[in-house]
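Possible regression after last week's pipeline update?

I re-ran a chain I had predicted before the update to compare outputs. Posting the input and the new output here so someone can diff against the archived version. Not blocking, just want to make sure nothing changed silently.
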Amino acid sequence: MRFPWLIIFILLFPFVALAQTGVITGTVTQEGTSKPLPRASVFLSNSSVGTATAENGTFALRDIRPGQYTLVVTILGYENYTKTILVGREPIKMNIELAAKPLMLREVVISSAADWKKNYAAFKKDFIGIDENAKYCVINNPHILNLTYNPTRQILHADADEFLIIENKALGYKVKFLLNDFNIDKISGIISRQGQQVFEELPGTEAQKKKWHLKREEAYYGSAMHFYRSLYTDKLVGEGFMMYTLKRAPNPERPPEDMIKRKIKMFYDERRNDSLKYWTGLANLSRYAKEKLNREPLQQSDVLIRTQQQGIYAIHFSDYLYVVYTKKRDEVYNKDLYRPLDMPNYETTIVTLFSPYTLFDMNGIIVDNAPLYEGSWAKARLSDLLPVDYVPDVK
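New output (post-update):
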């Protein structure tokens, strides 16, 4: 009578194995001593997995979705500890020593309250976002930010010495962010960010949690995380993604971006309207010319490389990767985003590689050689950010 149950168990075993989660335990002490460090923050960057050390310096992180993570340990007065680890089914045990942080004198930058307020508004716009979700995001401690603006290079820089705490009341998360380096290059239009963050669930009523759940699903589907997970599992078409090769060249009629920005600023300051109008017209030209989309869809094997490291994948392609998500539309005009006239206005992203390949893990997160996004994924900000261990409903 037990035989049929044995068969069912054998059939289900692969799914049980896949559902297993990882565990990390360890102790945090002061470097060179056995002195435990209590109340140190220990977390997996970009995830919802985090804790604090006990009085004896011990910690435990449980129920971790398998994948590659950056383990972060931080406490006031000590250097931050970071280590890349691959979490699987086997428990991981770590003994971590933190070095005391030397007293460093920060360069004093004198600015007015009006300058700080202006810089903060620019920072918030490009760090949090400007979409509907951004309206429900609150930075609890903005004045820990160190904000400086270089008018010559037109770069806004931000960093912080402690957690920047943001409550995302659209998605139901509190995000604690260690902001190491954040730059807005107004000439190139490129925004770069370095840091680690951990997500915590906000308390809420059942009605609020239901709304947060729907908003999280909306943020996930069509995202870069969704794409990379669909790519390595070979479910792109079923999940709504199509990949193509895009060829293009710089527009010879459009001067370099830094020259355009410099001329516009100069003629604006000098109130030379005719020259300002001319250079503004050049700025409105597309950056690219001779764009051609190969309408033969790419397959998984055309872009995906399985590395020798378990759970790590590489993406490689020639020219530009043109990714279309057919389950959402984007009607906002973007002069630099090529769209064939006979193709519906689906959400579209153009991916540029700066290295021969980009590495990502089974959570759908870039772990090395980050690419450049143009289009839908480029608009993603903290207001739409989900932890890497987020799992949507099965549809």
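Follow-up from reviewer: compared with the archived run. The first strand starts at residue 22 and ends at 30. Marking as no regression found.
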